Amino acid sequence: MSFSAPFAHPGLHHDPQWYRRAVFYEVMVRGFADSDGDGVGDLPGLIAKLDYLEWLGVDALWLPPFYSSPLLDGGYDVADYRSVLPDFGTLDDFQELVTQAHQRNMRVVIDLVLNHTSSEHEWFQMSRSDPNGPYGDYYVWSDTDEIRQNIRIIFTDTEQSNWAFDAERRQFYFHRFFSHQPDLNYGNPAVHQEMFDVARYWLDMGVDGFRLDAVPYLYESDEGTGESEPETHDFIRAMRAMMDKEYPGRALIAEANQWPREVAAYFGTEDDPECHMAFDFPVMPRIFYALRSQDTSSLKEVLSEQTEILPGTSWAVFLRNHDELTLEMVTDEERQALYGWYAYDPRMRVNVGIRRRLAPLLDNSRHELELVHAILLSLAGSPFLYYGDEIGMGDNIWLNDRDSSRTPMQWTPDRNAGFSASDPGKLFLPVVQSLVYHYSAVNVETELAQPRSLLHFVRKIVHLRKAHPVFAVGDLMVCPTDNGSVLAYVRQTTQENCQPGERPETILCVFSFAHYPTTANVTLPDQVVADRVTDLFGGATFPSAVDGKITLTLGTQGFYWLSLS
Ligand code: BGC
Ligand code: MG
Hints:
The protein is an alpha/beta fold and 565 residues long. It is built from 17 helices and 22 strands.
């Protein structure tokens, strides 16, 4: 498999708002490619696959933690913020990854785990053994576990309390996630300095931004819920000010699994900005809800609520990631329905969510996979793909926790799916060998050889999106339709949001969630002219709008991206 372009690599282009136009790809170093045959993916393995990612159309990588860690939470249990886990490579390898990605004009975003460390971190070890020492106040200690009972538990399957007793210090420490992940004490200014310096350390190595992990939980108070407390926003504002001053052009991405208004608060205000991007947790589960209910009303509602965000900010839209498909931000009724449709086997559930990959969730339906990608790549914001979903990889619900969807990337039909030359028994997780998703059929090489494969479809639609900057920076206006199963919105740019050389554009996107063919009347916004209507995929001309309305016929779960002029 050779993907290398015949031309010289372009190098990093100057674009202070690069994150608004980027197609992101989340890649777990451990699961992508193993260069040294030890059964564990590593940074040199990832570097060797950059040509593939460039071919696919990826503009930015997001790497979950690759730091030294006991790996009890996929690396989100950091034991040393300034290191690379030896199984994954060295700091030099990381520097090389950044250099080689930048040569391809590809950005690198990494996780900044602010809220907690591993209990193996030396700060915690010193905090427990020396309460009066310099690290004594780095964590949240208490003589009683009876306070802050109104703070909800996130890992409901494994934790009974947010407090754990430390036998050495003979006090309780607060932990929002696993009990081996003590929360840092943001009430202590020394912790702020410490985390600023960690950020600077990686920014100095050239990273283009951070995903701020679990960001709502930094501060907790006796009265509050421990989510999005005002001091948490103050801290992010300070972090943003430091970045703007010392490292302009780098981006902050909030991971805030919250209701729409609370998520939007992580953008801050024009005078006091916080994050450049925030993951769109409210929209994601509603796409899955609409697929089975054939009812788009709650999806339309959140999309309509979200249209106004600060200039220069962007949603980070996604379908799946390395975590469970979280169902926290839906109503109880919707959650029960989603469990029934998508997690009919109890093994498919974890905490408040579903631990499956995209293709199995959608029963490997090509209609549905194309439909959800057409939505993901046309929504307002920048799309985040999850490694392996571009080939329709399966999952393994017999594995523990969220490892179900973190199995090795499937490159070829050969041993270990071409992921590693190791003894198959040595792999960090087994490759998927289920009937439907066996790596002998589902892999990059096989799909490359098949022009109509999902991989070729995903690549095509990624490139089509990128050919029309309106998808990245245009406004989104939800359009009324007379069919509850049909979602329609217009994406539009004006001269103001175009870069030099770009023309203003208007694109109508229409999606049918109906399980059979259907028709819909779409009412266009007043200012939109549709004398000439052309399909972006094949170029066919459609009937023009009459009185601001377009009538369309849609096949089963069909969709259009129509250029209007
Ligand atoms: C990450 C999870 C992790 C948790 C605790 C999250 O938000 O995405 O994978 O388990 O933070 O660090
Ligand atoms: Mg290795």
